[in-house]
C-alpha cells in the first residue's frame, strides 16, 4: 500500500474515533480545507509540519498518526510530564531519594484515604 493510502486509512480512523469532521480539523490546525481533503482522500500525505499540527489537534503522537505501533509498556508523555522528567534528571541522587520517599508517603496516604472512604461507605 502506498504512503498516501496508508495515511488516509489511519487519518480517517482517527477522525472517526475523535468524532471530528474535516472542517473541525481545519479550524483546529489552520490547514486549508482543499489540502485537508487531499489528505483525507489519499491523494497526498502531509509534510512534517502539517502532520505535527494534525497529530496535536487529534491528541496523538506522530508515531500513532503514521501508523507506527507503540510498544506495550511504553508511555507517551505529555508536556507537563516531559518538563518533570527534565527537572528530575537535574536533581542530585540524594534529592531524588528524598522526593521519591515523599511520593511514596503521599501514595500510601491516598491508598489509606481511599480504603477508609470505602469502609465508611459500606
Short description:
The chain is mainly alpha-helical. The chain has seven helices and no strands.
Give an overview of the whole structure:
With 122 residues, this protein is mainly alpha-helical. The protein folds into two domains: 64 residues, lambda repressor-like DNA-binding domains (434 Repressor (Amino-terminal Domain), Orthogonal Bundle), CATH 1.10.260.40; 43 residues. Helix content is 72%, strand content 0%. The chain is built from seven helices and no strands. Helix 2 crosses helix 3. The radius of gyration is 21 Å and the shape is elongated.
Count, helices: 7
* Count of individual beta strands: 0
Spatial extent as radius of gyration: 21 Å
The overall pLDDT average reads: 84
User: What is the share of helical residues?
Assistant: over 70%
Q: Helix and strand string, N-terminal first?
A: HHHHHHH
Q: In the residues, how many domains can be counted?
A: 2
Separation of the first and last Cα atoms = 57 Å
In terms of structural class, how would the helical and strand content be classed?
mainly alpha
Biggest sheet character: none
CATH topology heading of the largest domain: 434 Repressor (Amino-terminal Domain)
Features:
122 residues, mainly alpha, 434 Repressor (Amino-terminal Domain), 7 helices, 72% helix
Topology:
Layout: H1 3-17, H2 22-29, H3 33-40, H4 48-58, H5 62-66, H6 79-90, H7 93-121
Amino acid at each position: 500500500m502506498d504512503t498516501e493510502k496508508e495515511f488516509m486509512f489511519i487519518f480517517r480512523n482517527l477522525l472517526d474515533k475523535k468524532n471530528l469532521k474535516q472542517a473541525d480539523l481545519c479550524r483546529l490546525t489552520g490547514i486549508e480545507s482543499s489540502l485537508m481533503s487531499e489528505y483525507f482522500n489519499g491523494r497526498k500525505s502531509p509534510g512534517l509540519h502539517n502532520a505535527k499540527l494534525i497529530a496535536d489537534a487529534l491528541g496523538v503522537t506522530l508515531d500513532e498518526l503514521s501508523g507506527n505501533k507503540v510498544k506495550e509498556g511504553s508511555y507517551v508523555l505529555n508536556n507537563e510530564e516531559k518538563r518533570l522528567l527534565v527537572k528530575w534528571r537535574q536533581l542530585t541522587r540524594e534529592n531524588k531519594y528524598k522526593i521519591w520517599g515523599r511520593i511514596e508517603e503521599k501514595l500510601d496516604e491516598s491508598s489509606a484515604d481511599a480504603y477508609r472512604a470505602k469502609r465508611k461507605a459500606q
